[in-house]
Design goal:
The protein contains ten helices and 14 strands. Helix 1 packs antiparallel against helix 2 and helix 3 runs antiparallel to helix 5. It is an alpha/beta fold and 412 residues long. It has two domains: 138 residues, no CATH class; 266 residues, Metallo-dependent phosphatases (Purple Acid Phosphatase, chain A, domain 2). The chain is elongated and about 90 Å long. 42% of the residues lie in helices and 17% in strands. The protein has a six-stranded mixed β-sheet with strand order 1-14-2-3-4-5. It has a six-stranded mixed β-sheet with strand order 6-7-8-9-13-12.
């Protein structure tokens, strides 16, 4: 472990030194270069200390997330500077070697080609753009809630449910919240939509049930005429921290479910419920987490569907959209609508409706944000209400999805 930390620190020092060459070229002042070193060292040391606290206590506190955010900002800033400087060095270094062989090492060392001011200025400018975006994402992006409306039409939706309004929210990650007023603002935005039902698709916490406690009263403001339902996400099992015993871990999950129930959520664990309106009903199905790529696979869709009739209109709540892709689409029972979260849209990307929709998340998940349709089945992947690790959002903002169900015969 010590060797790994030493290698990590050595790598960071190399990044700092290389990136600082651009500052040295542009400002011609060694004190600015030294100041850059001091800031970097302070950020790195603080990040290491916060990781140590995290590994001991298991709580991903706001102190950790901000430490990680600043560390990420500086590393990306430095890597982008280095990328531009490396391009210049592809020409500088061959020139230097040529002089070594033609004029001797001593003379060539003294006359190594200088860095061009323009290249260093361009490196600093280009690196400052994403770094500034990450900084603003921490200041403003993480609570910049957006209401996204979808009108989805189905052939077999009972006519009584035409116009039925679903509020789909996901990924609170309570341990990351740091502002009661802004959280309450987001919860009030949900309630302002006057949903008929509220469906939460997992990751209530980062790791531990106690993360809910400071925010319990605010989250308890949520309510809907046809109830609130929740499922578990991969973070709700406490798999990412060390426990004294398996019993302690099980007790943590039990406490989390009890807290969710106390806030008004009916937690579905590979089970289903009927939602009735007048003389008709639809079936709400909830599975535990099932995710590809090493994530927990506790979700059992067969168990969840055991009491469900084939011709019932079905809404499936499944945290990870890879479950829809790998299991749900090919399942013998037709699932009309699936609701997922998990990806957060990577909390970073570019979205201009009708023009561009991009995030690094697309390289990991085929279905990463918004509505998709395959084989006459629909999934909505919520971008998440909270945030994890990086305490901000850039371009991909916290989402409140409002889904208006429509029957095909009434879709005018």
């Amino acid at each position: 472990m010590i060797v790994r930390w030493l290698l990590f620190i050595a790598f960071i020092i190399c990044l700092q030194w290389y990136a600082s060459q651009a500052l040295k070229t542009v400002f011609k002042n060694t004190w600015i270069q030294y100041g850059f070193y001091v800031v970097n060292i302070a950020v790195v040391v603080n990040f290491i200390l916060q990781i140590t606290v995290l590994s001991k206590k298991g709580l991903m506190t706001p102190f950790f997330t901000y430490s990680f955010g600043l560390f990420l900002l500086l590393v990306i800033f430095q890597i982008l500077i280095i990328f531009v400087l490396l391009f210049e060095d592809l020409f500088r270094i061959p020139q230097w070697f040529y002089h070594i062989f033609s004029k001797g090492f001593k003379q060539s060392f003294q006359h190594m080609p200088d860095r061009r001011l323009f290249i260093s200025q361009m490196a600093l400018l280009l690196a400052s753009i994403p770094a500034s975006a990450l900084f603003l994402g921490m200041l403003r992006g993480k609570y910049n809630y957006k209401v996204i409306n979808h009108r989805l039409t189905f052939n077999n939706l009972p006519s009584e449910f035409d116009g039925f309004k679903i509020a789909h929210i996901s990924d609170f990650h309570c341990g990351s919240f740091d502002n009661h007023e802004k959280l309450k603002y987001g919860i009030n935005m949900v309630m302002d939509q006057k949903p008929d039902i509220i469906l939460f698709t997992g990751d209530m916490v980062n790791n531990m049930a106690d993360e809910v406690l400071p925010w319990k009263d605010t989250l308890s403001l949520l309510n809907a005429p046809y109830g609130m339902f929740a499922i578990l996400g991969n973070h709700d099992y406490g798999d990412y921290v060390r426990w004294e015993s398996e019993g302690e871990k099980i007790a943590n999950q039990k406490k989390l479910i009890e807290l969710e129930q106390a806030m008004g959520f009916n937690v579905l664990l590979n089970s289903s419920v009927k939602v009735s309106k007048n003389d008709s009903s639809i079936r709400l199905v909830g599975v535990e987490n099932w995710g590809s790529g090493g994530f927990k696979k506790n979700g059992d869709i067969d168990l969840a569907l055991k009491d469900v009739e084939e011709d019932e209109f079905k809404i499936l709540m499944s945290h990870d959209p890879s479950h829809w892709e790998e299991v749900v689409l090919s399942h013998p029972q037709h699932i009309d609508l699936t609701l997922s979260g998990h990806t957060h849209g990577m909390q970073f990307g570019i979205e201009i409706p009708g023009w561009i929709k991009w995030s690094p998340a697309k390289y990991r998940y085929k279905y990463w944000a918004g509505v998709y349709q395959e084989l006459d089945q629909i999934i909505n992947v919520n971008r998440g209400f909270g945030f994890l690790a990086y305490p901000g959002r850039v371009g991909i903002y916290p989402e409140i999805t409002i889904i208006n169900l429509k029957t095909a015969q009434n879709n005018t």
